Amino acid sequence: MIIALSVVALVGLVAAAWFTPVLSVRKISVVGNVGVPGDEVLTTLAIPTGKPLLQVDVDAAARRVAAIPKVDHARVERRYPSTVRVTVVERAPAVFYDAPEGTHLMDAGAVAYAIEPPPPGVPRLKVERPGREDPVTVDALKVLTSMPPPLRAQVGEVAAGSISDIRITLLDGRQLVWGSAENTERKSAIALPLLGQPGKVYDISSPDLVTVK
């Protein structure tokens, strides 16, 4: 009898939470957004106030928010008794590239997500067909993002005519002939001390035979 009454009570509580406004959405909080307006997140989230929290499909809501171009991924959580919390992780620009319609920002995953002026310190990308499906773009970004911060901070431009012809132009005009994306860690370790030597072009495409001109 006690077990039966407990089950009935539990079913009643679940039913109350599911069908009545006892545990309904009264507040939606958005955190982590800087470049994406909160109103845009709320509109895309599409969760009405007054909806029972148990009826909120948090996974579907997170996918809707993640579809915003500037959003890398999002998490949607139920916070009882009456709050939905949305955590937004925005895309960060790794490079920018010029196109007829304007300057595109691209993240480290080769996703072009905005047309707007680049923030200070973001290097230019010069490839023939910038995009996620372009191996040259992918390898150029792999080289850039694998660099140690002291070296990456000096980069003004990453240019590549092919996957084996990646060239790095530093902010002071000097150039690193990188070659392919292979042995990037070793090339980075060689590049930093090598840049202490006088020269304009530093060829580290073959780490075993570097040259300075």
From TrEMBL:
Keywords, sorted A to Z: Cell cycle, Cell division, Cell membrane, Membrane, Transmembrane, Transmembrane helix
Aminoacyl-tRNA synthetase recorded as keyword: no
Main location: membrane
GO biological process: cell division
InterPro entries per the UniProt record, alphabetical: Cell_div_FtsQ/DivIB_C, FtsQ_DivIB, POTRA, POTRA_FtsQ_type
One matching Pfam family: FtsQ_DivIB_C
Keyword Mitochondrion: no
Matching Gene3D superfamilies: membrane protein fhac
Localization in the cell: Membrane
Domain POTRA: 23-91
Record-linked PANTHER family: CELL DIVISION PROTEIN DIVIB, CELL DIVISION PROTEIN FTSQ
Protein name: Cell division protein FtsQ/DivIB
Organism from which the protein derives: Rhodococcus daqingensis
Top-level taxonomy: Bacteria, Bacillati, Actinomycetota, Actinomycetes, Mycobacteriales
